[in-house]
Amino acid sequence: MRFSAIVVAAGEGLRAGPGEPKAWRTLGSRPLVRWSVEALASAGASEVIVVVAPDRLAEAADIFKTLSVCRVIAGGKTRGGSVQAGLAALSCNDEQPVLVHDAARPFVRPAHVERLLSALSDADGAVPALAVPDTLKRGREMITGTVSRDGLWRAQTPQAFRLGRLRAAYRDWPSGEEPTDDAQLVERTGGRVVMVAGDPMLMKLTWPEDFLLAEQLAGSRRIVRSGFGVDAHRFGPGDAVMLGGVRIEHDRGLIGHSDADAGLHALTDALLGAIAEGDIGQHFPPSDPRWKGASSDQFLAHAAERARAKGALILNADLTLICERPKIGPHRDAMRARIAELLGLPLDRVSVKATTTEGMGFTGREEGLMAQAIVSVEMAF
Ligand code: MG
After folding, report:
1. From ligand 1's centre to the CA of 377, what distance in Å?
2. Is residue 51 within 8 Å of 90, Cβ to Cβ?
3. How many A from CA of 66 to the centre of ligand 1?
4. Helix, strand or coil for residue 331?
5. Which of 205, 220, 235 marks a domain boundary?
6. What is the mean pLDDT of residues 227-255?
7. Last residue of a domain, one of 220, 235, 263
8. How far apart (Å, rounded) are the C-alpha atoms in residues 370 and 262?
9. 136-139 and 143-147: which strand pairing?
10. % of the chain surpassing 70 pLDDT
11. What is the pTM of this model?
């Protein structure tokens, strides 16, 4: 189901102690706000509006510039004002579901989103909720009473709504009052808001000690995945070949629908493999005239964009080119630099190697050349 999302990251988070505003503190070497935004993008959001404090606009725009579904806007003085700014910025129609999420809950997963969207089929809103396991006391220093837990729930985010319903609820809300969550507005207008199973992992990072706990959880929820890619192209008439994103003068050319850069094709397949997103032929069908003679750097850049959208951090790439000629050595560093640029990696994480097959097989007879690549990424478990 198509859905949009608003991530509210404009608050100062004073209870979290001194330092950067909460959304900008790092968790597992990424700013907190990136966790939810990337998770919602990877859960399939067609649009993610990130609402930040006005003085953070430039920084946030830079962080999310490679995530094409994401748009950064300035928020209001209150949380409600920020959500309203987000609602105004959404481009989808009123029937589409919208998820409103607090940046301070970094561990949102696709399963949470699926649960909310399916509950929305016969409700105006859906909220993840947890029962209260502890005994509840009322008082200041001294206890003045014990509160029954019966029928009490802890509401989390993301909360899901029909966009039109939430917009109308915000229009009707009395000015000067500040709702504590978005469900409250829809409840007030008589909307049907249902609860779905919450998750302790959707905890809100509020106090300094929450960040310590989250740091441990963040480390345990990321794993390294690798993908492998192979490609071969046949030699034909020509005076140059494209290999590893670099043009090399040669007494022959390479035949292919695109520019036949087997090196970038193998890397593209390796990266798509690491994130389990099919292969290059699915993303760029040879039957599509748009890719005739196309420069292959856009294939690898597209795979890198898909990886980022899934919240994957590319760790390294290793490419092996198998041919008798042309000689790769003189062009190795230029290829590494171009591949590093396309993947957004530092140079020392990109390797280009070359070998021959000692005159054996199709590469040995110089009928064509072959490339093999491995790419590793770090992503959520
Ligand atoms: Mg190819």
Report:
1. 22
2. no
3. 25
4. helix
5. 220
6. 97
7. 220
8. 7
9. antiparallel
10. 98
11. 0.65
Mean pLDDT, residues 204-212 taken together: 89
> 370: CA distance to ligand 1 center in Å?
9
Instruction: Examine the domain organization and report whether 264 and 371 are in the same domain.
Output: yes
In the reported structure, the alpha carbon of residue 187 is separated from the centroid of ligand 1 by a whole-number distance in angstroms of 56
Q: Is residue 221 very low, low, confident or very high in pLDDT (cuts 50, 70, 90)?
A: low
pLDDT surpassing 90 at residue 82: yes
List, for residues 10-66, the tens digit of each pLDDT value.
Answer: 887 767 677 788 888 888 878 999 999 999 998 999 999 999 999 999 999 998 988
Domains held by the chain: number: 2
> Are residues 227 and 129 part of one domain?
no
> Domain containing 40: what range?
4-220
- One-letter amino acid identity for 318? D
| 339 CA → ligand 1 middle, Å | 16
Residue 33 is which amino acid? V
CB 228 within 8 A of CB 270: yes
> Ligand 1 centre and the CA of 306: distance in Å?
19
Same domain, 301 and 253: yes
253 CA to middle of ligand 1, Å? 14
Q: What is the CATH number of the domain that holds 376?
A: 3.30.1330.50
* 323 Cβ contact list (under 8 Å, min separation 6): 354, 356, 363, 366, 369, 370
Tell how far the Cα of 267 is from the centroid of ligand 1, in angstroms.
Answer: 10
